[in-house]
Automatic annotation (TrEMBL), chains A, B:
Its EC number is 3.6.1.13. Residues 51-188 form the Nudix hydrolase domain. It comes from Ceratocystis fimbriata f. sp. platani. Belongs to the Nudix hydrolase family. Keywords: Hydrolase. The gene is YSA1. It comes from the Eukaryota. This is ADP-ribose pyrophosphatase. CDD domains: NUDIX_ADPRase_Nudt5. InterPro entries: Nudix_hydrolase, NUDIX_hydrolase-like_dom_sf, NUDIX_hydrolase_CS, NUDIX_hydrolase_dom. One of its GO terms (cellular component) is cytosol.
Length: 205, 205
């Protein structure tokens, strides 16, 4: 039984009356000339009150003797009808910081215990279309810790997540290879891989 | 008159009957145990038939003597109520390739003429929430070309876009500085900057 055993059945129109997790919003604004305009936006309904983000993405790095590796996941994503290659991620709970959400989500989804190293600015996933956003939390995973010897995820009944590791240095090639195998690539991991390639191509240091 | 002169007025519920550019969709699928489940998804209504992407993002690099610089934009984004820092981007037209859309959009939005170097896998912006996606097209901009001496964008009446350049090597620090000034950071540029920092931190080459 793996994430790849999921199967798409159908897409149908979601009536407004049935929408629980998502909603459509009309934005009214003045453009720079003072003209009033409107814009359509999609939103999650789950962002906690007084919180400025929907969730966190987690760049979890293992430092192995052969070089650094990043923790990735395979998870079936109904909106894209396919198993998606992603970094660990999750929605934030009320009262949590991004760091706390990241430590909790990594533990729940993968079983691994990580240490927070850095937190990104708030990043908007598709700001011409929706307001969904996240902070990326950068963590290291110390594989010598006793709690990381036999990590056990605590998944919800409807979650099926497979964890795997990829060397950072070959991440972009691996994204291309996984896409060719039929996986969908999440923008966070694909764009991180592009950033690594750009740094290498222009010898940034 | 600049992008920052835009002003948020209100968010209201968008009735299903008024939605033109966006829609909510109910996904029905079988999970790996064979249990039938549903999921909510948001979609753009603009993806051309038989096209596998909504649009393109453009990583346009200028090679200056002082080092490579990336072309960025400031644009007011109603869904996030703020001016957003983004790479040039746009929706794809029917019958276009990602490369053709990128050349056209760069010309329209910024006036610059670029040369395509590489195209990314399809990347999904937020695959637990929506199906929106893009390919990143990597381009170089030759500043010695006559057509790049006095570039003139061809903007739509409702578009107000400001173009600027940032050294690739300080992109992450610049994202943090711009966020502190009140700008919203698009995930594509923020995550590309994170990838550059990761490559530098782990001395990938």
């Amino acid at each position: 039984m793996s994430a790849s055993d999921s199967k798409h059945i159908s897409f149908t129109k979601l009536p407004e009356s049935e929408a629980v997790w998502t909603k459509l919003v009309k934005c009214t604004y003045l453009d720079p000339t003072g003209t009033q305009r409107t814009w359509e936006s999609a939103e999650r309904t789950t962002r906690p009150k007084d919180c400025d983000i929907d969730g966190v993405g987690i760049v979890a790095i293992l430092e192995r003797e052969s070089g650094p590796e990043i923790m990735l996941q395979k998870q079936y994503r109904p909106p894209v009808e396919r198993v998606c290659i992603e970094i660990p991620a999750g929605l934030i709970d009320a009262g949590e910081t991004a760091e706390q959400a990241a430590v909790r989500e990594l533990r729940e989804e993968t079983g691994y215990v990580g240490t927070v190293k850095d937190v990104s600015p708030i990043m908007f996933n598709d700001p011409g279309f929706c307001n969904t956003n996240l902070r990326t939390v950068h963590m290291t995973v110390d594989m010598s810790l006793p709690e990381n010897q036999n990590p056990k995820p605590q998944l919800e009944e409807e979650e099926f997540i497979e964890v795997f590791f990829v060397p950072l240095n070959t991440l972009f090639a691996e994204c291309k290879r996984l896409e060719a195998e039929g996986y969908a690539i999440d923008a966070r991991i694909g764009t991180l891989a592009e950033g690594i390639e750009v740094a290498k191509a222009f010898k940034l240091s």
